[in-house]
Amino acid sequence: MSDSAIQIADLTVNYGRKVAVDQVSLSVTRGAVYALVGRNGAGKSSLVRCLLGQQKPGDGKVTLFDEDVWSRRSELMQRVGVVSEDADAPPEMSVAAIARFCARLYRKWDQESVEERLRMFGVPLSSRFGSLSKGQRKQVSLALALANTPELLVLDDPTLGLDVVARKSLFEEVIGDLADRGTTVFITTHDLIGVETFADRVGMIENGKLVLDEEVDALKSRFRRIRFATDPAALDTTVMRPTVMRAWGGGAEAIVSNYDDIAFEQMRSTSSIGAAEVQAMSLEEIFIAIAGGNNGRNE
Amino acid sequence: MRNALVIAAREFEEKRFVAYAAIAFAVLPFVILNLIPMSKGKSPGEAIVILAVILSSGFTVGLGVITGATFIGDVSAGRMSFYFSRPVGSLSIWFGKLTAGIVLIVGCFGIIAAPARFIGNSWASVWDITFAQLSVAVLGAAVALFLIAHVIGTFVRSRSPLIAADFVAAVVCGAVIWLLSLPLALGLAANLVKWLLIPLAIALTIAIVAGGAWQLERGRTDRRRGHLALSHFLWGAMAVALLLAAGFVWWVVSVKPADITDAVVSHSPGTAFMTIAGKTSNRGDYVAAWLMNIDDGRSIRIDAQSARGAVQYTRDGRSALWPVLVGNVAELRLYTVGDAAPIDTGLTVWGDFIFPSDDGGRIATVNQGILSIYDVATRRSFASTRIPQTKFARGLFVTPDLFRIYLQIDSELRIFELDVRTRALRETGVISSPKYAFLSLEPTAARMVVRVAQSNVVTLNDARTGTVIRTLLTGSRASVSRCLRDGRIVVIETQPGGTVMHLFAPDGSPVRDIALGPSAPAWFAGDDGTHVVLLTAMSGTRNLVSIDVNRGVVERREPNVGQWTQGGFYELRPAIGPLREVVYQDMQKHVMAWNPTTGASRRIVGG
Known about the structure:
Shape of chain A: elongated
Strand order of the largest sheet of chain A: 6-7-8-3-9-10
Helix content of chain A: 25-40%
Number of helices of chain A: 10
Largest sheet of chain A: 6 strands, mixed
Oligomer: heterodimer
Low-confidence stretches of chain B: none
Shape of chain B: elongated
Low-confidence stretches of chain A: none
Strand content of chain B: 25-35%
Number of helices of chain B: 11
Structural class of chain B: alpha+beta
Order of helices and strands of chain A: EEEHEEHEHHHEHEHEEHEEEHEH
Helix content of chain B: 25-40%
Number of strands of chain B: 31
């Protein structure tokens, strides 16, 4: 048995001639929280559908807990909780009826936890699913996804439609708690601030390609924003690789993707860089820098 | 299985309002009866039965379409992630939804139709079919529409160009089914057509049901992949079913004359041909027919319809003419001894009288009062003219350029001649004939024996003008009156004291009477001028007898005769060639040929 909860190898998804996911490989260790970020249409949802065995990839393989998800989907879903991008329970059913229905499909089902979470979210059990707001539907989906005590929780853009309080609750109380209990979490999101505190690893998908797949700490440690008081003509780009370089005030701003304290100090002491301010970056800033850099390259 | 039931229950619960609507529809007939007063003499029970049947049928069929498009519509639309993110297999999802849909359809029909069955108590007085038959028809239609709606929904919702291939496949399937049914229909096999179509309908149903499961297993939430999976499965299964059906049809139609179990044979005296038709072993009601040359045993397959008296033989015995149905018309084929294959005469006929010339070189047709003469070799129409319309027409080529026709119109037999060269039609004579007149012309077509049905009078007449030359018999109970090849005439009369053959000279003067034994029906089977062959039926047994008319004795007898096979009762003139073997069926139903000269019998078909 490997240490991976998720193994994706050379995953490719095509829609006709359009390549939605292009030879993506990634691995998520058990108990880790993996955040997959990407812009709309980048291929996240296709990847999630393949991850859940809902869509057969054109090429490549996806395994969950070392089992092929396409052929073993039904059994594997006993161990997986899913919150899909569009909350898709039948709109005519009441929340209680949906919970009753789901309870009959799982070997393990904690009805009390469902009711407790829904109480916490303020969603009445008697409400028709179709009458709930988008955020409430997500909350119901989340409550249902957690009721079978999943080993893997897959959240496809779970904060879409949630207000600030609900978003904070989701990240800090639910996912944080799950992470603490050793549940593997795979989350696709735009909300990088939210996942920054608990994501162990982050992947970035752009035009179907996985352009980034790294531990969050390592990623954050190698990205820095450096602001130069004057034009940093002497910046050795062979040592500090700038992802973005632009004018800033009277000087310039560079975002480097391979920052190293010692190397930078050495460079500063031996060259005419002058005054420079080095700032750490948030995940969101790094995402924007990478996405912008890729766009720049594409252009 | 358990999960399928869980899903079925959920789907049913979701659509329970449809069942409530059905209950409302069930109550509706009673409400209507209370609101609208009944006419005097009308039974409220009958009104309930009628309303309940109309409402239940309409509701159920409509529900089938709507349910097919919506109940399992989310399968075709790919809205299935709610199920697929749960631990349930594709089969459970599909059969759960399918079960719920069918239960809903059947349940709603039962609810609405119940008053008609149990409360109205007037079913039999209103409908010709039973409640069970109606249920099968309505539910069958609703479930079929339910499944078809799913298939069409899948094809349309995928927005895939593959739908063009599906359309082509559906058209091809329809065409193949039609092409497979056609030979069976032409073989008059209504039951076999039914037994071909029912399994194909079952195969289609199974293909859609299993294809839906395959669609979900392979496509899951991917609409296009689901469409592809359903198309592959559906058309693949139908291809296999149609191949099996084609094999079955090929086996059915590849019968040989020896496979006929209950032959109907028609042989014209003096010709080498017979038609043989009948049901064939292990092939249900399929009827096959052949034109067979009894001299060399060669056979040509002909339409089963053609065997029913539609084959015409030429007087010289060398050719046969029959129609081949093509759509609503028939193309006339001609086969002549020695030819490799029949030829298409180029004539298209429908409901026509057809009269070939002695050698088959020309053909006369009568259709809706138009008499036409065709030349077979050149496929040209030589003449065409209007004649009085009648249901009974008999004609002959006196010479290749002179066609004579006898038309039974009301109480007259009117005689016309058409000169092919001048295209002039002349009415040459008329005979008073209150009933159908049996005619038999001597070989030159100058004179004829006329026996008007139920008139008890047999006369010798001028064949062209109809003028009576001589009265042969009066007050008789004649059953046969024929001219022989040498012009002499025989009339067979069944009298209480026995059956008698009267022989007359060509001018009508009596020659001799020949006693044939106890009173029994008799039929003319042929002659060679000296011998007359008759079939007689005495005390339940049938015999072929050969009578030497010169000596006045029964020379030979073939006693083992079962079914009578002789055709050509209405041939106007004796055959040209020598008297051939006479074809009959023996008591064991073998098709036999009897030589009246030698008395030898041989088996042609059967056994």
